[in-house]
Amino acid sequence: MSEKSTIEWTDATWNPVRGCTKISPGCKHCYAETFAERFRGVPGHPYEQGFDLRLVPAKLSEPLKWAAPKTIFVNSMSDLFHKDVPDAYIERVVQVMELADWHTYQVLTKRADRLRDLLRTKLAFAARLEHIWWGVSVEDRKYGLPRIDALREAPAALRFLSVEPLLEDLGEIDLGGIDWVIVGGESGAGSRPLDAAWVVSIREQCRGAKVPFFFKQWGGVRKSEAGRMLEGVTFDEMPERRSRSVAAHQSRQGMIRDVRQWEAAFRQAVPTGDEAQGLLLQVD
Questions:
Q1: How many folded domains does the chain comprise?
Q2: Rounded to the nearest 5°, which phi and psi values hold at 54?
Q3: What single Pfam family name could you report for this chain, choosing any that match (predicted)?
Q4: What's residue 283's pLDDT?
Q5: Which one-letter DSSP state was computed for residue 146?
Q6: Domain membership flag for residue 3
Q7: Residue 201 phi/psi, 5° resolution?
Q8: What is the CB neighbour count within 10 angstroms for residue 178?
Q9: What does the pLDDT read at residue 225?
Q10: Given the DSSP bridges, would you call strands 54-55 and 132-137 parallel, antiparallel or unpaired?
């Protein structure tokens, strides 16, 4: 977990899962994959396996160690709802969020159907928790807009959209049941262009629906030079984050011990030769 994130709309990141696979055009120039693959084969590095999917149970207890409240982007280097992440492991990750409730969690996925289905069933205990925000990525009409519909069908206290990288004009968007919208362009080598008219259209729709609008970046090869102002204004609108008292040190230590037992039990429960066994990262 990174205590200080450079992502404009969060404070920190937490990665109990690492790695992913591409499923739509928004994945083409994945920043996480580019970063991870730089370290493939480097002995002892957290990304020695590059961007191969890995479960990292040793990371489960980390939010409990932070005494100061943070806004935490969950799995900035993966997708919690990837098809190969076991339901049982997803449940444990969310149970940690339930315990460390002095933080605000931002969970973002492109696997919207699985998010919806689990929030209706095995994750129902957390669906309405106000400190967990559930979101989907939206890059275009074909792949992105259906994710919004799936998210809307999921029980959740707060739903948000990460419209990044925005690859085309999305047209009219149904923002019913949506509580926050982030928009941004693609950055880095080969980045695809962002048209200002596409961004303005979403901003105006957010205004009409009274949905907070956050413009993250124009992107491009030199994203710092392009900046993040839209028509001369920086848009940093966010939902209100509710505050909750941090658990006392002794209580947190007890929670950490419990989560470490979960970690050990999860490892033991995965049979040798099981597909999930190959995903487990034994050391950090």
A1: 1
A2: -140, 135
A3: DUF5131
A4: 41
A5: H
A6: no
A7: -60, -45
A8: 21
A9: 84
A10: unpaired
Give the model's pLDDT for residue 274.
55
Domain holding 242, by residue range, is: 12-279
- Stated length of the chain: 284
Please name the residues in contact with 127: beta carbons below 8 A apart, sequence gap of 6 or more. Answer: 119, 120, 154, 155, 156, 157
Q: Is residue 5 part of a domain?
A: no
Q: What are the contacts of 194-197 at 24+ separation with CB within 8 A?
A: 194/165, 194/166, 194/218, 194/219, 194/220, 195/169, 196/230, 197/169
Answer whether residue 20 is part of any domain. yes
Q: Are 68 and 205 in contact (CB under 8 A)?
A: no
Tokens 């049941």 sit on residue: 177
Query: pTM score, two decimals?
Result: 0.93
Tell me the average confidence (pLDDT) per consecutive run of 10 residues in the chain, 284 residues long.
75 96 95 95 94 94 96 97 96 97 98 98 97 98 98 98 97 98 92 96 98 94 86 96 92 95 82 60 48
Helices (H), the chain: 31-37, 62-65, 87-99, 112-120, 144-152, 196-209, 223-226, 249-269
Residue among 151, 170, 153, 169 nearest 161 (CA): 151
SS3 39: coil
The alpha carbon of 78 is separated from its chain's Cα centroid by a whole number of angstroms, namely 8
Tokens, residue 180? 């926050």
CA distances from 157 to 57, 72, 74, 126, 197 (A): 27, 17, 17, 9, 31
In a domain, 85, yes or no: yes
190-226 exposure pattern, b = at least 16 Cβ within 10 A, e = fewer: ebbebeeebbebbbebbeeeebbbbbbbbbbeebeee
Question: Exposure string (b/e) for 46-70, b if CB count within 10 Å is 16 or more?
Answer: bbebbbbbbbbbbbbbbbbebeebb
